[in-house]
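Entry for the shared binder. Reason: the reviewer on the internal report wants the predicted structure included alongside the sequence.
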Amino acid sequence: MSLKDITFNHFKIHTQYSICEGAVKIEELAKYAKLSKFLSLGISDSYNLSGALEFSEELSKAGVHPIIGTQLNIKTDNIIGKVSLIAKNEVGYKNLLKLSSKSYLDINATEAPHCSIKDLLDFSSGLFVLLGGNHTLTSQLILNNQDKIFLNNVSKLKSTFKDNLFFEIQRHNEVNENRIENFLIANSKSLKVPIIASQEVFYINQDMYEAHDAYICIGQKAYVEDKNRINYSDQHYLKSNEEMLKLFADLPDALENNHNLRYQCLYRPLPSKPLLPNFTSTSSTEKNVEVVLQELAQKGLEIRLKEVILKNITDPKQIEETKKIYVDRLNYEVKMINQMKFSGYFLIVSDYILWAKNNNIPVGPGRGSGAGSLVAWALSITELDPIKFGLIFERFLNPDRISIPDFDIDFCQEDRDKVINYVKNKYKGGVAQIITFGKLQARMAIRDIGRVIGLPYSVVDSLSKMIPFDPSRPLSLQESVALEPRIQEAQKNDVKIDKLIKLAIKLEGLYRNIATHAAGIVIADRQIEEIVPLYKDFGSDHDIPVTQFDMKWSENAGLVKFDFLGLKTLTVIKKTVNSLKENNININLKDLPLDDPKTFELLCSGETMGVFQLESAGMREVLKQMKPNKFEDIIALVALFRPGPMQNISKYNNCKHGIEKPDYLHPKIEHILKETYGVIIYQEQVMQIAQSLSGFSAGKADILRKAMGKKKSAEMERQKKDFIEGAVKNGITKDQAVYIFQLVEKFAQYGFNKSHAAAYALIAYQTAYLKTHYPFYFVAASMNLDLANTDKLNEFYEELKRLKIDVVLPSINESFADFVVRDNKVYYALAAIKAVGYESVNQIISDRKNNGIFKSLEDFILRIDSKLINKLQMEGLIKSGAFDCLENNRKFLFDAVPEIIKISKNYKEANLLQDSLFGNDKNSKLPSLENFVNKKDFWNQNEKMKNEFESIGFFISEHPLLNYEKVLKTYNVKRFSDISDNDLNREFVLSGTLMAVQEKKTAKGQPFAIIKLSDLSRMYELFIFSEILLANRDKMVPGNSFLINIVKEKMTNGTTRLTTRKLTEINSIKEAKINNAEIIVKNLESINELKKILKDGGDTKVLIRMKSKDKNYAFNLKTSKLIDASIVSVLNSSGFECKIH
């Protein structure tokens, strides 16, 4: 074959799935290959097949023939190295899956993933094996002069693989390549192993070389300047056919074998329809799953009818009518489920949920559209009666739009793993978790690349913090740089920073690490490795393999996903109920009345800190406006409080409170919209309107709902025509039908799934009920789930203060590891102190329980193992005040920590700890700590608070604002809790100590921040917009205290917002000169009094405002006056309102 007839085949492409090695994104490769008219390309990722199906699909769509291969570690003679494998046919692909899986599943945690050479020989059918290349098993053996081992292994492989074994020749202009090439060519003829030319491709274009070099360093945890790291040449790009033919012109056989390879690799993996797992049950082995579903659903409905639905109905006729409604709906659903072949799916989900409930593991009432199924309720999958709440089955399963059902199930966060283990043990070999790939996002790219190119940590940290973090609207690094002048300035002034930004932009979005999906589990109808390759996460709590395909491609391969979600709120509820039980208070959540007046009082007050879904600042404001008084209001609120539908909240509230008259559009659909006061909130309402007005079937109505929600214009036109025709047949004029369709279409864009809203509203109600009736236990349980989250603990601590619940401050003799309720007090958790650690504290508490309280510091050291508590832990406890019960001089103890640790370790080992550590006993074998530390030094109040803040994360014993009482009084500062409706459209001053800052960007790229502050009444949040943020950014450090000029404004949606006009650091005010003052007088008679107070001239310009009848007056005094803090205080106490600007 002449060179002009050869087309070089790049079958050694490393995609982004070669973590921190391959920089080729499959989607970009497919586009490039199509433009460049490649005939075939092959994937050959290191140590995995994660991209196999994606590569196969995307390349095929681009008209390029995909070749599927991988590079696995093979172990022989205790040497491990990479060998290239390529699938010739389907059998070969299945063997690739097997070998790739074995490389992870059959090893120990300390070993590199690998297969033995025996494994390779056992699963050889349908595979090509290629030996060669740098950084491989071949290169190791040749370069280490282990020719004999290499040739012996070649002989083994040749006898099994015969003509499917090649020696691989590569030319990247790298060290050792010539030596490897010469050895392979020299032995090729004698061993009868043909040579094949190949190119190891790590990136598409050559200008990616420098960025790729940094990417390699990230994976190696090395610096670019390191001399002893792996280095690649700049030749690993996707070269053209001409370049490759020129490079190997002297080896025509190698080129011909390369050319012919694609004709021998004709198989590619294809997507599969869902491979539904088989339900197995000891009680139903002889029965068809469809019969089992029918029987279990009927039995479950009978129980629900007896215990819930018919419980309070006495009229026999009504009982029969009600039963018929439920039985008919159940029979219809069972018929549809069986027709769609999803019976086994329902039974599997029901089985593990029932197991969880029978083992006292809390399960959520439902999630997503699954709550719309009566069968799901009858099988105990959900806990909401879909008929009572108007939930629609076809929203979940639609015979006209068949798609795999998807039950997302919430479990108690602490017990979720038990359910997963149950499923693993039941469906042996057919269960796996799902892999996830962490990307180099903007901030991480800056941090990683800044580190490997040697920039100082402080510089990299500062730059990364300038990039806004907003998961709801993530920005690329390029977008972030374009919107952030500080980064642009740094880039302009520093060559290294400019290099960092350019490299990071190139690498952003590539995969950086592997993790496991938090909730997804796949269950197959066979051994999973027959469908997808498997991986083992040795860091996981589960002894369950993990798919090498991510969620999207696992489902495309035919695997069916089941979501086992851990919901923290269910754990809070469980802990609250258990605590109540320990105190002889028994509560059954199923029996909670959904119309409890006190619970709705709490919701109307907006004091919903800790209440599921209802605790954000915006939600609390809406609750106060809405004043919910029925469970349906909570459902509506969960659905409405999102971007888009939020604009309908004021209409809902106004109609609810009789301010506006509801518009039901047409009498035929009034019953559908009555519950929501004429506002279309739910997707189910869209479906019901189409059924009632236009005679749509439930399935067709669901297609309309989906088309409206997804804005599918072609489908919408078809549906609109049918909607109008159906409505006209139903006696509605065409104009009316068009009008209603347009309105429904507008609302449907934001329509929410009522099934999901109702299920989450139930959890919200349960938490509100517990907080209302058992606040001590509920808040303590909530805090125990956030021991490491100081921001959240701070909010809960403020809530305890608001509820006037006493909190016992950290004490080594009184506190526990967790937050505990005793004698109507909450004891602060020692494990919530930073750097202390739960296990260490638990052992300290255990010793105290067994041996009594600690009588002195010496007693503490004698009893506690020195290995149990280190320097950081000891310092954290001291700074928090936990040792105040033994020694109240915190500075003395803090400074003595190194000596305490040393004495404890040395004397405990020698068993010499005795007598008093601080005593004057001349016979004591312990030196007094006063020999090392001056006991006369104390922390002043500010130092004490600062250290307390560092250890706890907020101020617990005293508040910094107490030091500024005079300033607060001078400036007439209002407490946040005292803000009322009377303050609407008025400017006033708040104070606050900054607790947290979160910077974001608006849609137009303007920076803003959400800041959390604490004043002497409570925690609160404010928005700080661009101008004020930029002017005060450097001062906005947690722990600093501010005065904030605020205006309370009413928004168009009926809610109110606090707008920040000015931010002033309190420390800068104490001695500051007052330049401008605005004084509000009530009437003309008070002017004389004002004259007396402002009798002296000075430097303050004065503006006087007065309202008389319907007119407002304002005038400036001609002469400046003497106004200082004391004068301001006199003015405010004399009935004037003085504002300082």
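Summary line for the report: The chain has 43 helices and 26 strands.
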